[in-house]
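Usage

Read records sequentially. Each one opens with the input sequence:
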Amino acid sequence: MPLTHTPTISTYEACSLTTVQRSILMVDDQSGYLELMAEVMEEHFPNLCLQTAQDGEQAWQLLNQPLCDRPFSNSSLGHCIYPSLIISDLNLPKISGIELLQRIKQDPHLQAIPVIIFSTSQVEDDILSCYRAQANCFITKPNDVDDFFTVVQHIITFWLNLVTLPNLGS
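and closes with the structure output:
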């Protein structure tokens, strides 16, 4: 990871199951990116819940746990919550980002969740493969920490404040 930054927090623990209505799942095998994402969330989006996975298999398991037993659940309110947005790296261990994307888009319970591929890859075939697999967008990760913060803020603002998303809670 080319970013040179020491995050001030290691995990984002500000999720309250009694109040959270929207959450983001970020999947990346580089813990530094997950920590930077947590910083952006804590500073700019404190009312959103961040769930992380470090490989595609872990993400898939999180997405397929029984609804009210999963980290996105709000069982005290009597319903469950799917992530509002999934941000995934392309090059992941165990299950690749493209395979995770394909599984999500083939699952009737998950397919309406926007999936952003956020990768260092600039290979045209990778980009095309992601769009063919129904990625909602492909964004190249910036190498600069400040640029990373800005891009992530724009992603979240666009997808969770400007776009009208379906309510997937049950």
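Summary fields computed downstream for this record:
- The longest helix spans residues 145-162.
- The domain at 23-162 is CATH 3.40.50.2300 (Rossmann fold).
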